[in-house]
Specification:
4 copies of one chain form a homotetramer. Chain A has 366 residues and is α+β, with helices and mostly antiparallel strands. Chain A has a single domain, classed as 4-Layer Sandwich (Chorismate synthase, AroC fold). Helices cover 24% and strands 21% of the residues of chain A. Chain A has a 5-stranded antiparallel sheet with strand order 1-2-3-7-4, covered by helices on one side. In chain A, a hairpin with a 2-residue loop joins strand 12 and strand 13. In chain A, helix 3 crosses helix 7 and helix 5 runs antiparallel to helix 7. The longest helix of chain A is centred in the C-terminal third of the chain and has 24 residues. Chain A is globular and about 65 Å long. Chains A and B meet through strand 1, helix 2, helix 5, strand 11 and helix 6 of A and strand 1, helix 2, helix 5, strand 11 and helix 6 of B. Chains A, B, C, D: Its cofactor is FMNH2. Chains A, B, C, D: One of its GO terms (molecular function) is chorismate synthase activity. Chains A, B, C, D: Pathway: Metabolic intermediate biosynthesis; chorismate biosynthesis; chorismate from D-erythrose 4-phosphate and phosphoenolpyruvate: step 7/7. Chains A, B, C, D: Pfam families: Chorismate_synt.
């Protein structure tokens, strides 16, 4: 398996390149009988779409999704759901100047060595554009989980470059271009404007959360729920770190502090991030991601060409100066796909899953 | 699949419980013709073994491995290698008092809800004892990778509780009970003695490294090398965070800093941690883990019993006050299993892999 | 996994319905660097295409394939190859009269019970139309195997209803509408004309052969080469029996007859059909299939409706009176996909495969 | 994957060699809470065991199974069930004379070419002895299916060499050494005695049946129920042909005959063998197998040695002159494993399965 399929029971097979004719995916294993239309999927695609603010790539892609199969008379049939998104705004000429050399921090060096060739148009297969089909598939998973268990997914930015973003309220997230949980984002607007002007890029930290997750999801020994979450999150372009619950802070915690006390009305804290022994506890799943700065920048960088000779690389074209900005809806989709897969795996072995244990106290990280 | 198999081509299927008659694994997909004996495996098992210092559990297990199949006249045959380790020092009575209640931070709550029952003897299947077969399988992978590519694995502790451990030299690691890369470990001895006396536990941070890794390993889109590394590492008992290369520090880096420059003699830095676009670059693979404090502690904790009633839990028995101490050889094994699997996947699709790109400059993290 | 992906390393994920907007597949795992164009695939699709003689369905589908991804500058890149075939000649109204009842011998009864709904348009997902993407994927496998090992695939009809078709020569196969290895097909033309007039359908027997197959392909214990061949062949619509080599005739053979003698110049016979112990021997792979008569016939049949009430069913629409007629190119494709997958599996574990053992004597079945 | 794991959700990983220290398997995915003991498994192992009549190999193996894991207080826990069978009656010296040459019709030629070596002791991994762990795993599946759905499995011999065995009654099967459904087996006793005396071997035909199979099992497109049945059956040692329902007889049937009429009280016939469109219909599953004559015979055969030189081979040692005789319980186990896997797959995607449609008329093949 060449790694383009995600999931064991709710399987998403992704295809396409940034500058090819189309991208898309095939979802295999969706339960039959769920109402599904393009509109259900388009909403999340629009949240991820480029060109929506001056802080992201100006490539203009409507990312309109077409359902090719698996839905009959408005309902899923249980057969593969093929989703197609045509590429419409490729400008391959922008990439001509980097076809013979390698961008520092970019996948093109590794692709060249692995396959003996590479598609330099927009990064080809390594482009973050390929997260669009993942988001589309995630929308299907979200809908099923919401209808079946009331599970919800949300994500926000908690740090932009060196600026921490305090958590005020989830309500602010949809109202600013940064997916920031704060009312006033002027500081981040200014930061990004200065960054763009400098020709550089920056990293970001993203928090992802799932609520009303059924208890009992996750397969020990190796396919633990948190292991599979780490897999999808680290596999997202530019991610260099993943935390569950207290994450790296747990290193300096004592056992008497870290272990979340249980009470007759629920857990007293959530250092576990909703997972114990690799299995969901019914608490909120809490994940945090470190996203590195974009490698495609206009500032000149020292590098080599395909013949191993020293050269200088400048990446023109339309790139996100902070890929973390658009990562929130993608991270939600990835978390939904993992939970969906484990929901099906659970009912295969253990029968239908139990609803989230109630009441779960509102103790949350950050 | 219930999650007890790791890998797609070099497949390890793990079985057993902490206090059952035996634990073990079946390795399927090992190339034929490699010399292999129990001694090749025992060395790593001995590094992970309990009872080797006063800072780890005093359970006395020789962890002697028996090869049941897959080796003929001292060589692997290409058929499944079954490895068996008999349990010899179970004391199930130690666990009687916790069979009816849940330990805060422990898997038993989740197992109970998932399966409708649990094996309370030593945590049953959720016990860290089940890492022994993983270490055994990892030893087989290490041997093949060393012979074929010269790949080497090592790990050390970089933080114990709130005490950071500076990096002095890899040579110190085998000479102290903490896998610490320092000459003088008195501070850590004292720290652990005080911790044990207090009846509490602490976390740790572990660094894992692979050198001479062939370039080109890793399968985009979803089964990237770093994604699969994150999967196995987060799946290790008690791990709450995983970083590749610069990890969470990359959030505050600029693109001009983070992206490792390429020069005719190699990369100028290793913020990437040896992976670009999910594919190995030939640089050292660098991984860092956050390990939470042990949940099984002697200090009384607030909890509930299986009927949902309030209770107090004290965990007697023999437990590691810092599970991170024995994590180093396990983390090495997990990294070896991932790289082995991707080496086979690579040669399936692309033919035999290229040796590590040379020369690789000695730039390393930390 | 819902069963729409074939193969473990050369993976084909099939999607679409007979009367939806499109059908297609995603091939994951194709080695990089092979020249590939739509023309390479179209040739086999044209051999399978409906409407090419009066003996097959008169549905007029050009089955024009579009490569959506995985090919750059005329060469495979090692990333997923998505193939799209638009449906152009659906006439859903033809099926209105059977939406409320079940055709004897047809999948619609089983689909109804499995999914709680069904797509009655042309059989939806159960239609033989879904073999088109399989044929397209098989063409890619055939090309790689031919270039790498010189492996070739061919199939012919050996029985039509109760009429055995003697084997004269492979050269005749492309020159008649039955894929029959004989020069004179008048008897079969007459037979089919009479059958159509009677409103009935008939079965067929198909022989499939691969030549110049490398020795050593196949994974014991469970994924033997012949086991995987039986899997794909029995999974082909309407197939009720599969034989390898001597097949059912071997029941009455003695060991002294059945076991193919080995001589310094090759095997003396091929009762094994090219497989011993589940592993290819370098001899020709020989497979035989039993294909049942089409269930969609115009003759009235006793049946029940979806409420369990007695009814009579007549299937109008455009159907193949003998689905076996178009089965030859599909069976070739299926055999190619199995051998391709095992070629990649073999080189993953054992390194690159050995060429077919030469000389292979020309002893062939029937 | 090297092919030693069967199933996608109820996964059986098989290990061991005929003359190694032990054979066994790991079952992953068994639902928790089912009562299980060694006795539940031993019964089927005893039916398959060698040495039970003069017509089978005289190797004396008790085949005593030990449960190493996955069962706690007499119930399955949902974690891997490891089963171990020690080999006790190996006589490796019997095989010394064939280590340097290849037996016609035997796997050793293919193993040699695949792996570059082979284990000549009793055929090593290719030995029919490795069906014992499969039978053990099948016993677990049978128990779960019987308790959950009332599904039952049985198999009998329908032809021995050139002697057809008429079907009288299933009740006779356990009362003769041939698993023959007839009261008087004198003819078969005589046939086998003469065969043994002649130093030759013969084939057999086996019928396998599952009753009370839930409707809706099977995953189109590729993992159809009949496809997966064909996979396991063709993968059984010595099998050269597989039929479902009417099998090869369907070639000469007309559609008006083959398609089983539906009536308000059930199907009027069972040419389909219980599967339509790859999905179970609730009718009995009917399978037929062709088993070739044993290749290990005492009569001298023309062959080559490992240097390609002409030689003569005589196989001493203890072999079954008709491996089909012990195939009945193995075929039952294989069918049970496939149905078990699909039962779990079905409830993953579609929720819990429906009971077998009743009443199913008693129309049965042959």
């Amino acid at each position: 398996m060449s790694g383009n399929t995600l999931g064991t029971l709710f399987c998403v097979t992704n295809f396409g390149e940034s500058h090819g004719p189309a991208i898309g995916c095939v979802i295999d294993g969706c339960p039959p009988g769920m109402e599904l239309s393009e509109a259900d999927i388009q909403a999340d695609l629009d949240r991820r779409r480029p060109g929506t603010s001056r802080h992201v790539t100006q490539r203009n892609e409507p990312d309109a999704v077409e359902i090719l199969s698996g839905v009959y008379e408005g309902k899923t049939t249980g057969t593969p759901i093929a989703l197609l998104i045509r590429n419409t705004d490729q400008r391959s000429k922008d990439y001509g100047n980097i076809a013979q050399s390698f961008r520092p921090g970019h996948a093109d060096y590794a692709y060249w060595h692995k396959y003996g060739l590479r598609d330099p148009r927009g990064g080809g297969r390594s482009s973050a554009r390929l997260t669009a089909p993942t988001v589309a598939a995630g929308a299907v998973a979200k809908k099923w989980l919401a209808e079946k268990y009331g599970t919800r997914f949300r994500a926000c930015m908690t740090q932009l470059g060196e600026l921490p973003i305090p958590f005020e309220n989830w309500e602010h997230v949809p109202h600013n271009p940064f997916f920031a949980p704060v009312a006033d984002v002027q500081a981040y607007e200014d930061y990004m404007d200065a960054l763009r002007k400098s020709g550089d890029s920056c990293g970001a930290r993203i928090r992802v959360q799932a609520t009303s997750v059924p208890v009992g999801l996750g397969e020990p020994l190796y396919d633990k729920l948190d292991a599979d979450i780490a897999h999808v999150m680290m596999g997202l372009n530019a991610v260099k770190g993943v935390e569950i619950g207290a994450g790296f802070a747990s290193v300096a915690q004592r056992g008497t502090t870290h272990g979340d006390s249980l009470t007759p009305t629920g857990f007293a804290s959530n250092n576990a991030g909703g997972v114990l022994g690799g299995i969901s506890t019914g608490q909120d799943i809490e994940v945090s991601l470190a996203i590195k700065p974009t490698s495609s920048i206009i500032s000149p960088r020292e590098s080599i060409d395909i013949h191993g000779q020293s050269t200088e690389v400048i990446t023109k074209g339309r790139h996100d100066p902070c890929v973390g900005i658009r990562a929130a809806p993608i991270a939600e989709a990835l978390l939904a796909l993992v939970i969906m897969d484990h929901a099906l795996r659970h009912r295969a072995q253990c029968g239908d899953v139990v609803q989230a244990v109630a009441p779960i106290p509102a103790v949350r990280l950050g």
